[in-house]
Amino acid sequence: MPGTILKTLAVLVLMAMPAFAADIQISTENTPSHFQTQVLQRYAAALNAEIPEHHFDVVHSARAFSDREVAEAVSSTRVAIAAPGIWHLGQYSSDLNALLLPDFMGLEAQDVRRFVDGTVGEALEDSLETQLNVKVIGKWLDLGPAHIFTRKKVIRRFDDLKGLRIRYAGGDANALRLAALGAEPVLIPWPNVPDALDRGEIDGLLTTSSTVVSASLWEHGLTHVFLSHSYYPFYVPLISGDIWRRLSEPQRKVLTDSWEDMISDGRERAVSHQESSMALLREHGIKITAPSNQERESIRRSLASLQDEMAREIGISNKMLEILAQHGGD
């Protein structure tokens, strides 16, 4: 209760202060070693250089909010800026789950970017801004391909997932895909994952190599990764709609231009960090296996046969499915 009162008071002070005096927090649940945190810190530094009347500060390691909560916190001005993953945003706009559907399984970075940088991304941003009091700052930042990491059991084929308790970060389509493969999806916030591994509450998790490295999860029992290429996640940069409207037009331009100036490099950092993280996992004894291309495609087709049913269950609109079909190659 005291923390909630302090946060509320902080928001009221922020809203009452003149524009030239306000601090602006950027929230992430990732640790300082995670490349996403580092990209946000570079963004904050660029903004501080261009907008000296404000101070932009990155609050990492979920010290402000977990990413599952942060979009609503941005919407209600409890924090100014955040970049939650698409897997968290489907709870506010079901259409965001479209990018987690089986059709996207195994796609490379450049293929998925064509979707999110084009008509599909624009429609998803409009949907999100309609549901929340937020403004999307610019292009989405890659996280990288998501795979399945396990504690004890070595996964050599998708069939080996049957009966395993696999943690997922969010996204109803992720849960449905894991369940369709015979696993038991378990939703656990990222800050709680190390303890869940230590206590044996889960057998593994769906995530990326960069994320595993950022928390040294081999120290919590992870021994193996199965290169499932389950989906390709992104972070969506958001700013509070109230704060956006209070900023001057030149300040808004700095926010969007500064993000645009660094997003290409940020995406390259994401890809290179995933690759270097996979190498580091090998160094720490993580065993790596991968299905054959034939098996992965067979599984993708099998899951795709359930896609329409999945889309209906999680509320993806027919309009979004039509946009995906018509404009996916933008």
List the helices and strands and how they pair.
Elements: H1 2-16, E1 23-27, H2 35-50, E2 55-59, H3 67-75, E3 81-82, H4 86-89, H5 109-116, H6 119-131, E4 134-136, E5 141-142, E6 146-150, E7 165-168, H7 172-180, E8 184-187, H8 193-198, E9 204-207, H9 209-214, E10 224-231, E11 234-235, E12 238-240, H10 241-246, H11 249-283, E13 287-289, H12 293-304, H13 307-314, H14 318-327
Parallel strand pairs: 1-2, 1-3, 7-8, 7-9, 10-13
Antiparallel strand pairs: 3-12, 4-12, 5-11, 6-9, 6-10
Helix pairs in contact: 2-11, 6-14
The CATH homologous superfamily name of the largest domain equals: Bacterial extracellular solute-binding protein, family 7
The CATH class label of the largest domain is Alpha Beta
Shape: globular
Please give the radius of gyration in angstroms.
20 Å
Alpha-beta classification: alpha/beta
Using DSSP, what is the number of strands? 13
Strand content: 15-25%
Return residue spans where pLDDT drops below 50 for at least 5 consecutive residues: 1-21
Element-level helix/strand string:
HEHEHEHHHEEEEHEHEHEEEHHEHHH
Number of helices: 14
Identify the strand order in the major beta sheet: 8-7-9-6-10-13
Total discrete domains: 2
Overall mean pLDDT score?
A: 92
Indicate the percent of residues in helices: 40-55%
* N/C terminus separation: 48 Å
The CATH topology of the largest domain: D-Maltodextrin-Binding Protein, domain 2
Q: Can you name the CATH architecture of the largest domain?
A: 3-Layer(aba) Sandwich
